[in-house]
TrEMBL record:
<feature type="domain" description="Bacteriophage phiJL001 Gp84 C-terminal">
    <location>
        <begin position="193"/>
        <end position="273"/>
    </location>
</feature>
<dbReference type="Pfam" id="PF09931">
    <property type="entry name" value="Phage_phiJL001_Gp84_N"/>
</dbReference>
<protein>
    <recommendedName>
        <fullName>Bacteriophage phiJL001 Gp84 C-terminal domain-containing protein</fullName>
    </recommendedName>
</protein>
<dbReference type="InterPro" id="IPR018964">
    <property type="entry name" value="Phage_phiJL001_Gp84_C"/>
</dbReference>
<dbReference type="Pfam" id="PF09356">
    <property type="entry name" value="Phage_BR0599"/>
</dbReference>
<dbReference type="InterPro" id="IPR011928">
    <property type="entry name" value="Phage_phiJL001_Gp84"/>
</dbReference>
Amino acid sequence: MLTLSAAMQAKLDAVATTFCQCWRLTRNDGAVLGFTDHDRDLIFNGVTFRADTGLSASQLETNLGLAAGTAEASGALRDDGLTESDLLDGLYDGSSIETWLVDWSNVSDRVLLDVATMGDVRRGERAFAAELRSNAHVFDQQQGRAFQRGCAADLGDPQCGVDLAAFETAATVMGFSGGILTLDLASVFDSAYFSGGALTFTSGANDGARFTIKSHGQDGLRASVALWTPPGGAIAAGDRVSLVAGCDKSAATCQQKFDNIVNFRGFPHMPGNYRVIAYPSALAPAMDGGSFFR
């Protein structure tokens, strides 16, 4: 429940009010941006809340219980504010957004309405719309171990334990055409070695942006790499990138590619659906309830 000062309550009870909404957005890289639906900039808590972005938000919908509340914020894409390249490069994914109700005639009269996380973003030619998820969305995240064939860990995380530095290499961009990056690598790798892995730009217009690799082909030291999402900035020959090997989370890959089967977080011997619908046959192994792998 919100606690309002006497001054705020009096202004809310008045026939005409001088309130507007402000949003304080904190990106994962630590950058802080402020926006408001008022017609001039406002400043408080050391942040300038800009009025020229056309940002607006829908009403936050909440439910009883632990269901996550949702809202939507939309605004203009500007070179000096929210840019399409930053959105494409994932700089706003998972950002924290504070929603404030502020008296624009006296910004010291304000109240924090909600803290949300930025979810899915839709982009148009000159505008964007972002889903705002309440903190209850954390309850939708998986807790504990999952009973599945594939590994439940992510390559390089504490549960996996793989040292990514041993499976990482630097490369130079030679060209970009048709959604395919042509790279000059320092070493020779098998085709598909980096499929499902990560590519991070270490120079150029996309410096620091990280993308998931869709496919990887190799011909000598020359590699062809496709990404699942295109970078937001221009790609130029000579840009430097870093590639990390991909993992399909199978037991065979864990053992043969990473020599890490001791930390495998899946259940490769779990029977599949084909075992459930199987029926006894004189030509098939005995179905006596014992192990299928002995």
